[in-house]
Amino acid sequence: MIAEIKPSKGKGIMAAPPSKSMAHRLLIGAGLANGTSVIEGISSSEDMKATLDCLAAIGAKYSTEGDKVTITGADIRNIPTGAVLKCRESGSTLRFFIPICLLDGKTFTFTGSEKLLSRPLSVYEDIFKKQGIFFKAEPDKITLGGKLQSGTYKIKGNISSQFITGLLFVLPLMEKDSVIQLIPPVESCSYINLTIEALKTFGVEVAWQDEKTLFIKGGQSYKAVNAKVEGDYSNAAFFAALNELGSEIELTGLDPESRQGDKVYEKDFALLGKGTPTINISDCPDLGPILFAVAAVKGGGIFTGTRRLKIKESDRAAAMAEELAKFGVAVTVHEDSVVVYPHDFHAPKEKLCGHNDHRIVMSCAVLCTLTGGIIEGAEASAKSLPDFFERLENLGFEVTLYDA
User: Which is nearest to 263 in space by CA: 253, 272, 271, 254?
Assistant: First the structure.
């Protein structure tokens, strides 16, 4: 799909999209619960479909009505033999479900896009090797089998929090207690806290013993609940960025007390335009692309803690450097930092590329509302926000979509 956007400004009130991070967690919690839960605020994004597909594969039953999903939990000690979990392009889905499937010793297969299956899983591989769990990664699938053990896990704190979350889902269901010791530095702590909050919703308790140690009591169970997904600071950031470029959009449905790490966009946007600020994004890497975009308009910025951008849906730092160059902005990408230089920002002189990455597409779209432009591969926005361009139109932006 190709999106053509003309220079335009938006105005209006818009409800923030539901939090993708919390939606994953609430759906999985409901899928592990005894009984039937109702979760409101679930979008029709590709990532949500992936998590629902995987819940069905392990034996959960669900039905949808609008943004409401009714789920009857699965007995994950009796998952169908040979279950195939289709993760599409969702890294969260893959990393969350891998430990969940290791409670009863059977063999499972995970499938997904080539890009997804090439993303690193070494944290789990190291654990599985120590515990004698079978793990085989191939270009088109991952096969594993065995029983995960309770106990003490020592894990580097600067890896993706998705690995920690995957373990936190399953360790409470084991008979004995467990401890996760995070080796400093600890990054993405906000996402770990988001998981702890979601688990608490289902009556499962996980506690910080200190700033780097998590205690997980065994013998717990998930209880069915009715819950609503809170507004998403991560996707709201794209619409808030439009205000930085002159639009007047009021976002509703965002919890000011939320544990979402991406709520820092409010503070970070305020810093941009005041000299060349240094902003650490190690706890909010998903904000990287839109922060780079706003920095390109407002005089540059230095961003640290960017190392993990390389292993997202695209190499996000490199992808944004390539697209911002089309706007006349120079970007230097280092191992764990990105510098956006102050330049004369101008309309792109060639078509923009979405890099099959929803956050790249939406960041480029924000810039095009200022300059005009054409984005190829715009359909990637459906991964997290299927109605992104519809939302732009409803706010008054001039958007035309074409088939590629």
Answer: 254
DSSP 88: T
Q: Residues 6 or more apart from 400 whose CB is under 8 A from it?
A: 3, 4, 5
pLDDT tens digits for 173-192? 999 999 999 999 888 899 99
Q: What pLDDT does 404 receive?
A: 79
pTM: 0.89
Which of 39, 22, 42, 25 has the alpha carbon at shortest distance from 168? Answer: 25
φ/ψ of 388, rounded to 5, equals -55, -50
Q: Does 286 participate in catalysis according to the annotation?
A: yes
CA distance 131 to 191: 26
Reported as a pLDDT band with limits 50, 70 and 90, residue 312 is: confident
The tokens of 187 are what?
């990054």
d(CA 174, CA 94): 21
CB 320 within 8 A of CB 291: no
SS3 349: coil
Element (H, E) at 298: helix 288-298
Q: Residues of 293-310 as b/e, b for ≥16 C-beta within 10 angstroms?
A: bbbbbbbbbbbebbbbbe
Q: Are 105 and 131 in contact (CB under 8 A)?
A: no
pLDDT for residue 136 is more than 90: yes
pLDDT of residue 358: 96
Catalytic-role residue among 47, 268, 286, 357: 286
* 3-state secondary structure (DSSP) of residue 38: strand
Give backbone dihedrals phi and psi of 243, rounded to 5 degrees, phi first.
-65, -30
Residues 314-324: tens digit of each pLDDT:
899 999 999 99
For residue 171, the 8-state DSSP code is: G
